[in-house]
Amino acid sequence: MPTKPLLVFVFFTSMAVVSHASSLRFQYIDRRHNFTAKQASTSSSSSPSSAHGSRDRRPSFALVRRDAVTGSTYPSRRHAVLDLVARDNARAEYLASRLSPAAYQPTGFSGSESKVVSGLDEGSGEYFVRVGIGSPPTEQYLVVDSGSDVIWVQCKPCLECYAQADPLFDPATSATFSAVPCGSAVCRTLRTSGCGDSGGCDYEVSYGDGSYTKGALALETLTLGGTAVEGVAIGCGHRNRGLFVGAAGLLGLGWGPMSLVGQLGGAAGGAFSYCLASRGAGSLVLGRSEAVPEGAVWVPLVRNPQAPSFYYVGLSGIGVGDERLPLQEDLFQLTEDGAGGVVMDTGTAVTRLPQEAYAALRDAFVAAVGALPRAPGVSLLDTCYDLSGYTSVRVPTVSFYFDGAATLTLPARNLLLEVDGGIYCLAFAPSSSGPSILGNIQQEGIQITVDSANGYIGFGPTTC
Fold this sequence. Notes:
This is Protein ASPARTIC PROTEASE IN GUARD CELL 2. The protein is mostly beta strands.
């Protein structure tokens, strides 16, 4: 049987980097990412994490890919990619609808007679973590979502629930489950909460397309990476429908007070870090790092008062190879009414850019790679190549230029997505509305630290 040729991607930019890749994964001779920061180091008053020692006792999790939990099988890799793209489109549309200025009008709690609709077609995310709920802990898979605040899990008695990999959580079996009273400070923190018949706090969280999770708000003990944390406010969902496919609920890591990071407060230092793996397990670590990774680039977070749960970054431009694209200066700017901007999102796979920016990036990439054989586009991925007959190709790097003169240069594995045997597509797409989204394909393999307490996000040199 003939051996499939090893495909080698050779970067060309101002600093040449050589990397090796097969159809399954990218492997690097030089495993360092190209991170550069032209500004001086941050002052102590606004510095993100600081060094306090070498031991790391922070709660940590393995981040598991969605398909590893759901057991999804596909006839071919193309079918798997088409499924991912369909979920991705739904997620991007959900974010666009949620982050449009028209969506910021406050809504009241709709009460116990709310209509239950099917869906949750927003694409709930590609990464799961294992969390223990209650005492003794019941192990559950939860979707990791950096754009959501509320932590919730499907609960008995379940009036309407979707299928999940684990048995439903039963509050009656937990010694630490405590219903949140109606009118309490915790209950009032939620925008959509109200009083149940029993005097407890009922919650409802909408996901943009009319779908939602609905039930009772409670205080419960969560076991996070072997560490038990008491008194965490979670939603105990008695009505939930959608396409979470295997997960028992959602672990919100957003910037709001009801997210896990927000509730942990000083215990977590307002920070968490993660490393997404294209295959196998990645990692999620709660809390501030005890040491700043050498070579990390810190980018200021941008707060959108109209959408305070999301992590925005100030992007000033994009480069292909060593050339900066000629784009309008305000193309990625967050406007006063909360429109535009650039959101970091773990639930979206393919990075979305304004049409003008995407067209410039695509055209520069196509010109740089030259006469490589093109392949038909695959759904929203319109720039594809048939590299099945090649042992090596030359591709340019793509760089993100952030406010504050920091630059993140991506390796080839964060640019090209294999959609079939030897067929690779540029993993970027245009967006006609809503914010730009920095997706998880572009984040893979990079140690990312979100330090919301100090208002920074860090891109570190560690790979996973």
